[in-house]
Structures are given as C-alpha cells and as structure tokens.
C-alpha cells in the first residue's frame, strides 16, 4: 500500500512537488486522475475512479468550483469529510481517513514521511522555518498565477490581470534571484530543499501562458515569462535550468516541458 495517495487532474505541475520529493525521500506515492475535462466523469473519493452507473445513482452531484465552474462533479461524503474545500489535488493517508490539501502541504507530508534522511525540510528548526517562508511566498504568487491562467481562457480577459500578474512574478522572481546571490546553489542551506522543488513546479505551471500567445497578442500583450526574464533574473533562471536536469526532477519535468513547448510552438 502506498504511503500517500493523490487524486488530481493530470498532468499537474503542482503534483510534481510531491513526486519529486518522494523520489528523494524514498516515499511511495500513488497518483490517480485524468485530464481536467475528464474529471467530471470521475468519482471524487479516496477510491477515485471513472464513474459507474451505480456511482451516479448513489452519490450526489455537486457544483464544481475553481477550474470546474458551471459543471457538476460527483463527490462522496467521505471525500468532503477529508477535504472540506472540495478541491484537487487531494491527498489521503493510506486508510483514506485523513485528507491533506494544497500542494505545498502535500509536499510537506512527503518530506515528513522521509525514509532516506534527505533533509528536504532542513537540518534545523530555523532552516525548516526559512523553507516555510519560501513556500508561503510561493502561495502569494500562485494565487495571482492561477487567476491569470484561468483568465487567459477568455479572449476578452481584463488586461489589468496581466499587469497585476507581471508585478507578482517580478516580485517572486526577484526574491528567488536575491536568495541565490552571490553564488548559492540552493535556496536554503547547502542542499536541495522543498523550497527549490516548489520554485520549479510553480514556474513550470506558469509557463502555460505560452499556450495563449494569440490571446495576449490580440490585446497587444506579450508573455510575462519571455527571453528578458533570463537577463532580469539570471540566478533564478540558471537555478531553474539546473534543477530540471536533476535526476529527481527530470522524470516529471522533462516530459511536461517537452509537451508544453511543442504545443506552444
């Protein structure tokens, strides 16, 4: 039995936080899910699966939320008890009774289950707290990036969303860049940590704006992550490029970015 089960739409860069950490920690993580459009035909539960007719008859359909607005999703009472915000990614303890939500918390759960003494969550309480600081800062950026990426689905999205997100990205990238000065290899301490993993995952997700270049061009806008970001934030850019080649990152990040770049092209 897996140490942690995660139900989510797939692929999902934020789930990479947990799977990358799991490789480094020797933790067994089981993933269940499908493409976002297909989750409306899944039973949202610890035993998540494609819906059967019996599932539809005995489980109440509920209104979808962020990313699934306007649709009906079939969620069990047990799912809602474990996940009060009723969102994915949704992680569960092996017995299905304890739900863990929000990708950073799911990643922390993996680090706490560490079998290899990887020190992904730091070597001291102070390092752990500093890692938490980076993870909290990432949440601020993640909120803006999610609003932006969802808004880009509408060709007539409000242009001010682009401006707010550009500012949020600049603040986040500048903080990462500063933390790596003058020649640091990692964001916290002398080894890889959850802070580094989170940074890579959030940037991978944000790169999805590349899919929406026609929408941006229609409004006279350009992607926020463009060639200039490498010059503005050289330490952050180099850190990202170095980490995506790391053996623990490459199995997830490599195929994801390959498909993303191909689709954007």
Automatic annotation (TrEMBL):
<protein>
    <recommendedName>
        <fullName>Glutathione S-transferase</fullName>
    </recommendedName>
</protein>
<feature type="domain" description="GST C-terminal">
    <location>
        <begin position="124"/>
        <end position="265"/>
    </location>
</feature>
<dbReference type="InterPro" id="IPR036282">
    <property type="entry name" value="Glutathione-S-Trfase_C_sf"/>
</dbReference>
<dbReference type="InterPro" id="IPR004045">
    <property type="entry name" value="Glutathione_S-Trfase_N"/>
</dbReference>
<feature type="domain" description="GST N-terminal">
    <location>
        <begin position="2"/>
        <end position="118"/>
    </location>
</feature>
<dbReference type="InterPro" id="IPR004046">
    <property type="entry name" value="GST_C"/>
</dbReference>
<dbReference type="InterPro" id="IPR050802">
    <property type="entry name" value="EF-GSTs"/>
</dbReference>
<dbReference type="Pfam" id="PF00043">
    <property type="entry name" value="GST_C"/>
</dbReference>
<dbReference type="GO" id="GO:0006414">
    <property type="term" value="P:translational elongation"/>
</dbReference>
<dbReference type="InterPro" id="IPR010987">
    <property type="entry name" value="Glutathione-S-Trfase_C-like"/>
</dbReference>
<dbReference type="GO" id="GO:0005737">
    <property type="term" value="C:cytoplasm"/>
</dbReference>
């Amino acid at each position: 039995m897996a140490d942690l089960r995660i139900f989510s739409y797939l692929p999902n860069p934020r789930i990479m936080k947990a799977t990358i950490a799991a490789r480094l920690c020797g933790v067994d993580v089981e993933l269940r899910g499908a493409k976002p459009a297909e989750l409306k035909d899944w039973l949202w539960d610890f035993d998540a699966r494609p819906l059967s007719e019996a599932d539809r008859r005995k489980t109440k359909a509920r209104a979808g939320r962020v990313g699934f607005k306007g649709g009906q999703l079939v969620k069990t009472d047990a799912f809602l008890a474990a996940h009060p915000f009723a969102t994915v990614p949704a992680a569960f303890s092996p017995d299905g009774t304890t739900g863990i939500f929000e990708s950073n918390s799911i990643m922390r759960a993996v680090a706490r289950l560490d079998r290899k003494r990887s020190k992904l969550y730091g070597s001291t309480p102070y390092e752990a707290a500093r890692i938490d600081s980076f993870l909290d800062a990432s949440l601020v950026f993640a909120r803006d990036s999610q609003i932006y990426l969802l808004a880009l689905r509408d060709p007539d999205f409000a242009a001010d969303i682009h401006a707010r997100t550009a500012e949020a990205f600049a603040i986040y990238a500048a903080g990462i860049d500063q933390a790596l000065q003058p020649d640091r290899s990692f964001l916290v301490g002398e080894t890889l940590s959850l802070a580094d993993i989170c940074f890579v995952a959030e940037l991978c997700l944000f790169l999805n704006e590349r899919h929406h270049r026609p929408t941006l061009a229609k409004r006279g806008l350009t992607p926020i992550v463009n060639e200039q970001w490498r010059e503005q934030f050289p330490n952050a850019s180099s850190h990202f490029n170095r980490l995506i080649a790391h053996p623990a990152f490459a199995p997830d990040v490599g195929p994801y970015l390959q498909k993303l770049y191909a689709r954007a092209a």
